[in-house]
Amino acid sequence: MNAYIIAALLIVLLGVAYQTGWSKSRSLVTADGARVHSRPQYHAALVAVWALVPTLLILALYGYFSSGFTRAYVVSQLPPDVVTGLDQNGLNALVARVRAIASGYGVAGEVQPYENSAGFALRQFQTIAFMVVIAAAAGTGILALLYARARITPRLRARNRVERIVNLVLLACSAVAILTTVGIVASLVTEAFRFFTFVNPLDFFFGTVWAPRFSSTGAGNAGQFGLLPLLSGTFLIAIIAMATAVPIGLMTAIYLSQYAPRSLRAVVKPVIEILAGIPTIVYGFFALVTVGPFLRDLGASIGLSISATSALTAGVVMGIMIIPFISSLSDDILNQVPRSLRDGAYGLGATQSETIRQVLLPAALPGIVGAFLLAVSRAIGETMIVVLAAGNSPVLRGNPLEPVSTITVSIVNQLTGDTDFTGPQSLVGFALGLTLFVMTLVLNIVALYIVRRFREQYE
Amino acid sequence: MDMVAGKVKMTQQTLESSMDPMSSLRPVRIEARDVTVHYGAKQALFGISIEIPDRAVTSFIGPSGCGKSTFLRCINRMNDTIEGAKVGGVIKLDGEDIYDSALDVVELRARIGMVFQKPNPFPKSIYDNVAYGPRIHGLASSKADLDEIVVSSLRKAGLFEEVKDRLAEPGTGLSGGQQQRLCIARAIAVGPEVILMDEPCSALDPIATAVIEELIDELRENYTIVIVTHSMQQAARVSQKTAFFHLGNLIEEGPTEQIFTNPVNKQTQDYIMGRIG
């Protein structure tokens, strides 16, 4: 109810302010024919901003302080002997009960008469407080509106001001992404440091055994948190994925950009890009149900023992997932190579394949390497496919035919279910996350640097 | 000093060439009959017939979009690389139809070199740029052979003295005029008989242009050269035969001297006088 009233107030104020500014501005034009600096919509927008900002400020202050005020009011309405007889938690519970009574919800247990009267008083208090605040907000808004309207003169640089406000809004929006990143990194770092108070960083980064006991199995033994088995599994899968995706993706890109007729390209390219839109969990099913058993049977027929869930399964399926990424980026990069280079090679009598191998690919190489690095960072951070298909076996080994585990899988394992963030068993998730973040960050920076250098060369 | 001497020499040669009715004396190297080009549904050339004399410079002039570059690209079949382009009519090199299915386009392009509007050296070293053609065509049997071809091509292109100490540096690091001469050296290295030049000086400053024009004049001793140019002065300076294109038609062709002093066709006259284009 209150929210609707506030929304209605704001909308009405916005409309009235805009209309007022508009008509005042228009009247300037017709009145004396003086040259008006800004067009009416800028004056209108400026008045609207003037009217809304103080209103919003008052409402925000109310929202921020109302909880403290009502609490103080409730305490003042309760009998003093009841209040002094309670500790902090008991008082909080009592205030919550009174609030529930005031808002008309039922409360558990018997309702004391003093609770009831306090609830009734609170209800009245809240109604009055809200009306006062709304009136204050509306009044301030109208005053601000009138002030802004009075300031409209032909020479008022309303456009410049509105543009500056819009500029600030845009800045604030872009700051959201940056601040979020900073916040995430900060929380990762602080939690990771907490983890390192339990486990020596050397044991973490260079340990060869991953055996985190869960806290329920006894607090005495914290378990072993060696990163190396996870790192080796991560890299093993990423290498298999790249070995699958790079040749296929690159060949696809070469075919699409150089050989395919335009009509075929127009169909095939979007279809390949659809592959990138399949949720990774679906690739996980695909790995688990189709590719894993297929590889196992294939291995059996040639005398190899391949686990259905193994680094190979996860790597191959992840490779398939990455194909559109590589083919699409490489295709764009090959198309960016200036036509004049192609013509130059053809003009010398080079065949199409010579032109591609000796001129186009070398010219596009930096960009293609950048695409590969971006793909690698995706492969390292990929989670769902490995959760389902890699076998979750955090043992340090190099055989791709056996199950492995990765950093991402271990984070999932450590942080799902009931976790309290006090012991190393769950805090290790943050240390792992930080490791992963640093790895992909470095890869991305290197990739972007390479891609940018390539762009500068040709644009 | 060199530049001035070169200009003087060029002027003398231009005078000699204009006194000598080249096109009738020199044997015909390339013969085109009724050449048409369609890009998709749009017709770009309407029945071009022309004879191009051996070891002389033939220039194609005309306003933008008149089809002169399109016709040039027919001569080494570069239009094959453009999707939707269709070429009709007959073009013969030494009496051989170049659009005959028995003829391999790769061999044809080795015989007919091309220099483009914008210098387009490969992002490789200066040496590798020139060595690229000889390598793919297997023209050198040893490293020494290849060195020889690279050096002599750079010399013929008048670039060797400037780059002899930095053959291993990237060709893209040269100045625009040097890059264009590198592209000419690259074309020469394959040992072509004909060199096509598509506005080779349009991206260059006047001094670099003068150097290239001088080079073209020297090259015609050994090569049949066809040059497309926007600049009528350039056509007058370097060519012995001139053809005027307008809206996809060949309006008039003849000895350069005659086209510029006594054109037969009214449209040619208007273009020469700067009234169209």
Automatic annotation (TrEMBL), chain A:
The chain crosses the membrane at residues 6-23, 44-65, 128-148, 168-189, 235-259, 271-295, 301-326, 359-380, 427-451. Keywords: Cell inner membrane, Cell membrane, Membrane, Phosphate transport, Transmembrane, Transmembrane helix, Transport. The keyword Nucleotide-binding does not apply. Its main location: membrane. It is a multi-pass membrane protein. InterPro entries: MetI-like, MetI-like_sf, Phosphate_PstC, PstC_N. Pfam families: BPD_transp_1, DUF3708. GO terms for biological process: phosphate ion transport. GO terms for molecular function: phosphate transmembrane transporter activity. It is found in: Cell inner membrane; Cell membrane. CDD domains: TM_PBP2 (cd06261). GO terms for cellular component: plasma membrane. Residues 231-447 form the ABC transmembrane type-1 domain. NCBIfam families: phosphate_pstC. PANTHER family: PHOSPHATE TRANSPORT SYSTEM PERMEASE, PHOSPHATE TRANSPORT SYSTEM PERMEASE PROTEIN. Belongs to the binding-protein-dependent transport system permease family. CysTW subfamily. Part of the binding-protein-dependent transport system for phosphate; probably responsible for the translocation of the substrate across the membrane. This is Phosphate transport system permease protein. It comes from Devosia geojensis.
